[in-house]
Design a protein that fits this description.
Distance between the termini of chain B: 22 Å
Helix content of chain B: over 70%
Order of helices and strands of chain A: HHHHHHHHHHHH
Structural class of chain B: mainly alpha
Distance between the termini of chain A: 59 Å
Helix content of chain A: over 70%
Structural class of chain A: mainly alpha
Number of strands of chain B: 0
Oligomer: heterodimer
Radius of gyration of chain B: 20 Å
Number of strands of chain A: 0
Number of helices of chain A: 12
Shape of chain B: elongated
Chain lengths: ~220, ~210
């Protein structure tokens, strides 16, 4: 009873026109393939984090992505395995897509259905790519088998492959920020670049990784 | 690469301001409209009998149809540019074709069958077929460029709706200079021209709006 009330109160500030009812109404038809399950409380929390992220709060954004990832992993796993894909590759592809397309989220709306829609799109993409991959290369299959253990701890090699196609500078910046965990400012110092150009280079690197994902790693 | 490493990179990139989709689409519409108006001013002028035709029923039907088309397609754009589709907004797209169909039926009842042929062909069919796509090109181009920042659930559909909006706008402008008011003419040639723009944008959408 109390919990329900709290939930009601938490939900109240949502703008009327973006009420959840409207989103869930369309859900059964459009989202049959993918659902990100979460309680209304989570949903509100995610919405808040997403608002902060769009206002440029990197820490809130990192927390949001980390919170979304387990849910994404659960959603993607069975479908990716059925398609003979590495689940973690697809998870990373979804994360990249929702990062680059975060401007398509409508402020104040629940985050989960939006993430599910993006995940669904990317899983379909991955399916299509797999159709190509099968006839393209045996090596990639062997590759996949060989890396199986690495994948169980949340790593993927699609991005590793993508790294090879970036310019040296893009790769340096991306690795400094991701693997070594430097902030843009620290990376700028180490790489002797301006902070602005670190940010620009990082953004371009992420964009070209996403393009590469979309086209499929084996397509030229 | 580990997923947490990727998340660190994404978080570092989040300081970059995002392109707000709504204002971007409005800007694209504005720029496209300005381009079309420019073309119109350079190539065409309002029909000489503009003032005289203000009392004609068909004149109003024609203009209402094209304005409805451009308006409903522009509103429908909102529903198709995001990953979560909101299909109900597409239903207004039926308004313009329905009104046009009513106009055609009305004409078929009031005009003798012998006149249908000349009403249908009119005097400016080719003119119309060439100029509507030309006038639609600036908004179509601007909208497609803006849509690259969107994430449509169905890229083809998003392209088609953008094409319909652009085609509708081109038709609105062209209608100002077009002396043919017969609903039969509008149904045949305007539809063909707008349909061509829409299908080009549909295929362009499938090709370039995937994300």
């Amino acid at each position: 009873m109390m919990k329900g009330l709290v939930r009601q109160l938490l939900r109240a500030p949502l703008p009327r026109r973006y009420g959840t009812a409207r989103v869930t109404k369309a859900a059964p038809r459009t989202m049959d393939a993918v659902t990100i399950v979460d309680t209304p409380n989570h949903e509100w929390h995610w919405t808040m984090l997403m608002e902060q992220s769009l206002d440029g709060d990197c820490a809130a954004y990192g927390r949001l992505l980390s919170a979304l990832t387990p849910a994404l992993r659960r959603t993607v796993k069975s479908r990716a395995n059925a398609a003979g894909l590495e689940a973690e590759d697809v998870v990373q592809e979804v994360l990249l897509a929702l990062h680059l397309k975060r401007n398509t989220w409508v402020r104040g709306t629940p985050v989960a259905p939006w993430v599910a829609a993006i995940a669904r799109n990317k899983i379909v993409d991955a399916w299509r790519r797999r159709g190509r991959r099968i006839e393209v290369s045996l090596d990639s299959v062997a590759d996949t088998l060989g890396h199986e253990e690495e994948h169980s701890d949340g790593a993927s090699h699609d991005i590793e492959r993508g790294l090879a196609t970036l310019t040296e500078r893009q790769r340096d910046v991306l690795l400094a920020v991701s693997l070594q965990g430097f902030t843009a400012q620290e990376a700028a110092l180490r790489l002797r670049m301006s902070e602005v150009s670190v940010r620009v280079t990082l953004h371009r690197a992420l964009k070209s990784l996403a393009t590469l994902f979309r086209k499929g790693p084996h397509e030229d | 690469m580990k997923t947490e490493s990727l998340i660190r990179a994404l978080a570092a990139d989040a300081a970059r301001p995002v392109v707000a989709l709504g204002p971007l689409m409005l800007a694209a519409l504005g720029a496209g409209a300005a381009g079309s108006l420019d073309l119109f001013a350079g190539l065409l002028q309002p029909r000489p009998d503009f003032a005289a035709s203000l009392h004609a029923f068909d004149f109003w039907t024609k203009h209402t149809v094209v304005i409805l088309l451009a308006g409903s397609a522009t509103v429908a754009l909102r529903a198709v540019i995001r990953p979560l589709p909101r299909p109900p907004a597409l239903r207004w797209l039926w308004l313009a074709p329905l009104l046009l169909a009513a106009g055609v039926l009305g004409e078929l009842f009031t005009e003798p069958a012998s006149a249908w042929g000349s009403l249908l062909v009119g005097h400016a069919a080719l003119h119309c077929l060439g100029l509507i796509p030309l006038l639609s090109a600036p908004p179509a181009l601007c909208l497609m460029l803006a849509l690259r920042h969107a994430a449509p659930a169905r890229p083809g559909l998003a392209g088609a709706v953008a094409g319909l909006a652009a085609g509708g706008f081109g038709a609105c402008l062209y209608a100002l200079s077009c002396r043919e008011d017969s609903p039969l003419f509008v149904a045949a040639w305007y539809s063909l021209a707008v349909g061509a723009v829409t299908s080009v944008c549909y295929f362009a959408g499938r090709r370039w709006l995937r994300w």
